């Protein structure tokens, strides 16, 4: 079964290079254009359903990306962005953020760990073939979530994990096994 993933369009905090996480930061005008360009790219992919993070930047991206294909869109709470806790809003170049980012098993101060994100994302990915058999699903989510999705399909080391990035409205396809994983 094919599954697609995309990251929301550009936000104001992407432009400002700030750690985003859970704050409901809006799309920029460029982010809306990116979502409309995504709408063109998803035509002909056979997508039958979208599962979307509850944050407005992902929901707006999904709404615009669904312009032509008009498939069911479901809010999926497990796709919400990684909670970076007290580091949300700080510059991405902040030494405190980079130190916390390097430790995958420890929670961000007031937030969640990469392992906690992986647990909720892996459980969702394990469910999709049973819940949506024969469908082609597009996940509309976030940067940190897309990094974890990538590890579900690809064995990568920690260094590659930290450098993996899905661009705003970039579309990536994976093959999801339809039997037991």
Mean pLDDT level: 96
Poorly predicted ranges: none
Number of helices: 7
Provide the β-strand percentage band.
5-15%
SSE pattern, N- to C-terminal: EHHEHEHHEHHE
SS elements, strand count: 5
Secondary-structure-based class equals: alpha/beta
Descriptive account of the structure:
- It is built from seven helices and five strands, in the order βααβαβααβααβ.
- The chain is an alpha/beta fold.
- It has one domain: Rossmann fold (3-Layer(aba) Sandwich), CATH 3.40.50.
- A five-stranded mixed β-sheet has the order 3-2-4-1-5, sandwiched between helices.
- Helix 3 links the parallel strand 2 (49-52) and strand 3.
- Helix 2 (29-42) crosses helix 3 (56-65) and helix 5 crosses helix 6 (143-153).
- 34% of the residues are buried.
Summarize the structure.
The chain is an alpha/beta fold and 181 residues long. The chain has 7 helices and 5 strands, in the order E-H-H-E-H-E-H-H-E-H-H-E.
């Amino acid at each position: 079964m094919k599954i697609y993933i995309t990251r929301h369009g550009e936000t104001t905090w992407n432009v400002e290079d700030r750690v985003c996480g859970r704050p409901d930061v809006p799309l920029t005008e460029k982010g809306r254009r990116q979502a409309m360009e995504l709408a063109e790219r998803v035509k002909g992919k056979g997508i039958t359903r979208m599962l979307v993070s509850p944050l407005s930047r992902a929901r707006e991206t999904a709404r615009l990306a669904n312009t032509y294909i008009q498939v069911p869109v479901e809010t999926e709470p497990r796709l919400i962005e990684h909670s970076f806790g007290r580091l949300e809003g700080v510059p991405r170049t902040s030494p405190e953020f980079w130190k916390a980012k390097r430790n995958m098993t420890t929670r961000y101060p007031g937030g969640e760990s990469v392992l906690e994100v992986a647990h909720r994302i892996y459980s969702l990915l394990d469910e999709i073939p049973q819940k949506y058999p024969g469908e082609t699903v597009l996940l509309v989510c976030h940067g940190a979530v897309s990094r974890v999705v990538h590890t579900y399909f690809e064995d990568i080391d920690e260094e590659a994990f930290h450098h993996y990035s899905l661009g705003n409205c970039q579309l990536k396809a994976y093959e999801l096994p339809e039997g037991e994983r």
